[in-house]
Amino acid sequence: MRLPTRGGFLALAGWGHLAALTVLELFLLVEPTAVALVTGELVGRLAQGVARKDAALGGIGTMLALLGGLLVTGNVLRSASRPLAERAGRRIDAAVREELTARVLALPTLDRVEDAALQTELTTLRSPLLTWTDEGVGAAAVGRFRARLTMAGLVTAMLVLSSVVWWWGPATAAVALLLSRYRVRMWRTFFHVVSGTMPAALRGRVWSEMQSDSRDAKEVRIFGLNGWLERHAEENIADAARRVVEARVALLRRELSVFLGWAATASVVYVAVAVSGEVSVGRVAATIGAVSAMFVISMSDRTEDLAEVAAPAVEAITRVRALAPGLRPPPRPDGGGGGEITLRDVHFGYGDVPVLNGVTLTLRPGEVIAVVGVNGAGKTTLAKLLTGQYAPRAGTVATEPTTYAVYQDFNRYELSACDNVRIAAPQATREQVEAAARAVDATGLIDRLPRGWETVLSPKYDGGGDLSGGQWQKIALARAALAAACGARLLVLDEPTANLDIEAELEAFDRIREVRGEAAVVLISHRFSTVRKADRIVVLSGGRITEEGTHGELLAAGGEYARMFDLQARQFKESA
Ligand SMILES: Nc1ncnc2c1ncn2[C@@H]1O[C@H](COP(=O)(O)OP(=O)(O)OP(=O)(O)O)[C@@H](O)[C@H]1O
């Protein structure tokens, strides 16, 4: 991976691309002046030839060939210039994306990834509000580079003018630079107006897209939101559009004044040429050409000169680099020895809020442990510490490098059914995937999909399929079964079966038990009918493990577990 040093984004385009772009841009900048010179020379010779009635106008053929060559090459290179610049910009953006991804992946724990400041910067970088041109830092870096090169074109045109009358060159170049600076300022004003309208435009877009988005469709229809959404979309978009149109009109007015400024300057030069009788026809043509070249160069797109265009992105990248300084992922946690997974006096919290206050727990290979506790007791947090995704603030965690977890909010990938299971162990064969599905009784649902295992699990795709909440949970359980079959030493099941009916949950749990092999299983569930089957149950309360034992032992102890179990059992009896 090529990484930028000290913010040098341009180098990320690759030296080959930059060299090609430099040669091409320089040619294009010098070309108008060269055309002017050759035209001048050609006109001069023609005029001399005609005046002397000279039939053999020496060198005319060569001049014409040169002029033709310049014009043809100029046109060909002009059409290659933009794609090359865009490609260089995209290469820079790709390298930056690669670097930032590597940095986030290198963060040792999930809490560092979840860090609000980091997420804000990453969201900024993904936001369409980032730059008004919707371009990344690449386009801005290449744009600025090209803007710097235009100086070469200006110097060439200036030298040609000075060769006629020495002070014409610097005088006209000074006017060109002044007008250029003025244009940068007026584009900056325009940029700020357009940037200011972006939040409204984006809001309008969101409201507008909600009307047709399939995810929002059910609420939009049931609440009759269509008219309301349309009104909000229109208000926001119309307001943004009005402000942009006003800014554009102001911009056009200023462009016109710049144009008039140029016309006045050119007129002064042309009048000066006209009154200086000593200048040849060729020189006159060259002068006109050089002034035109300066005009074209200084009227070129100035948005690229604006540091503001890429400033939010550059600042966000700089902050991501500070928040995620590493580039290589840390080694996976080492086993606790003898296959045991241990937490010793573990403390953890989010920000200033403590969640775990001294948890000590040992999991033995093949053991099934259930963790229970009220909402917010810290069960998911404990699971994340067990899988090494959070580092404890105090105490020690010795866990296995090969863990797999199914959370309540497991990912539903827009991939085939097969890949949706295989994601738990990418090296797994199709046979292993099918065996895992059989293990958790998920083959029936696969058979009903239009293309079986190859069906993409999203209705957004042609021939794609959708699954119910419970069916998705079976896919998630199949992932856990596959991970166990492929050697995972710890399986965490964090309420993976909340959408299954009780019978299906019990069966799924029994099946996971069967396929777990040497893996320790941690089950987090609010359903005591499943929890009671665990080898050991721990109760988490007030950030500590307050009870620990088998179902029978905990019932006999008559503590919080017994109370919670009774409550649930009574409700079942009452509703039966
Ligand atoms: N990423 C987070 N940032 C800040 N606070 C969090 C975060 N995740 C959880 N918390 C807080 O930590 C506490 C424990 O949350 P946790 O999800 O571990 O509880 P839980 O026992 O799994 O709850 P539930 O049974 O509702 O799933 C809660 O008060 C929760 O609000």
From TrEMBL:
User: Looking at the record's lineage, which domain of life comes first?
Assistant: Bacteria
Signal peptide span per the entry? none
The entry's localization annotation reads: Cell membrane
What keywords are assigned to this protein? ATP-binding, Membrane, Nucleotide-binding, Transmembrane, Transmembrane helix
Carries keyword NADP? no
* Residues in ABC transporter domain copies: 341-567
Query: What InterPro entries does this protein's entry cite?
Result: AAA+_ATPase (IPR003593), ABC1_TM_sf (IPR036640), ABC_transporter-like_ATP-bd (IPR003439), ABC_transporter-like_CS (IPR017871), P-loop_NTPase (IPR027417), Type_1_exporter (IPR039421)
TM segment ranges: 7-30, 55-77, 149-169
Primary localization class, coarse: membrane
**Which Pfam family is an annotated match for this chain, by its short name?**
ABC_tran
The UniProt entry lists membrane topology as: Multi-pass membrane protein
Would the keyword Nucleotide-binding be found if you checked this record's keyword annotation?
Answer: yes
Name this polypeptide is given: ABC transporter domain-containing protein
